[in-house]
Amino acid sequence: MHCVNVLNQIKVAVNTVLEIIDQLEEEDLKKRPTPNKHSVGELLEHLAVIFEADWRISNEASEEEMRNFYSGVSYKNLNSIRKGMRKNFRALKSNYMKLSEEELQSKTTSYWGVTYTRYEWLLEILAHVYHHRGQLHAMLVHCYDKDPRILMFE
User: Fold this and answer.
1) Does 46 carry a binding-site annotation?
2) Where is a divalent metal cation bound in this sequence (predicted)?
């Protein structure tokens, strides 16, 4: 039951990011408010891949496995970002809904040494998505005067 609630909150974040994407133009993806930091497009690509990447990390993927995974991911336009977010969120939801209570309470360790229960990894994914959604919103509003004027929370 707890997973259903957390996944619902992730869905809220996904839906609001998708609403923001719907207001963007392809040229917005190239905007980079801070040198050596993510562009709008790179941040959206990261948001689209978080669900699959963090799932893999929570299943103890090695650093090399994650490097290989990231090198094979490419969401370079608004349509592919939309599709990737939806697909990867559906996969995360499906994966979590299949876990037993015992599996949710089992601990796994990331390749950099952080150990959480699988449920705590889900909470980490929730925090990760909300963090980057807030970054995206701030970039658009404060750097490009593009306020999406959407409710960020229900």
Assistant:
1) yes
2) 46, 128, 132
